[in-house]
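Re: the pair you flagged

First of the two:
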Amino acid sequence: MYINNLDLIYFHFQKSYPLDEDATFTLINDNQRVGFEIVKTYGNSKVTQTICLYDNFERIDVECDLDWKEENQILKALFPVDLFFDQANYDIQSGFI
């Protein structure tokens, strides 16, 4: 079965399987930043997220490293936040916000 990304229909975006089980957390605390690294697994795949705050910058960096080995499955990253700011800067290579 071959699935093209153009073949996706609406209900595919309604499904979700949180990767919260068996997550490992590692604290990051060096001279420039503080944060943590989260490693999660799903099937044969591995997702590594690094979330950091900086001492000299007013920003939060979220980096995601994916080793996705699942076939015919879509990976969706969600960042549920409840914040209010007058200004925000963000970047996304492809997709939508």
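Second of the two:
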Amino acid sequence: MKLCIADNLNLMRQKSGYSLEALAEIISVSRQTIAKWEMGDSYPDLMNCMKLASLYKISLDELVNKPMREIQNSDFLSLDNIIYFTCYFFIMNNSIFY
């Protein structure tokens, strides 16, 4: 089974209009890390996969296994999703419940 995650990450970032820097800041990694993921030199860990899937409103399976061209979700990135994602991770990162 061929993983599609590198191509999917690149396509989703481009469709959403994010630069490497902007996406890296949203999920708290470096620009170089995003670039390595998109080139297939390395893969995001499970937590970062969950962040990316949540941001783009797709499942983990779609992120990793399904070619993005097959994903029929033209509005995978909406303002509501960005607000939800930002609030969720702000709460999780600043929570006293570790």
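The radius of gyration is 13 Å.

-B.
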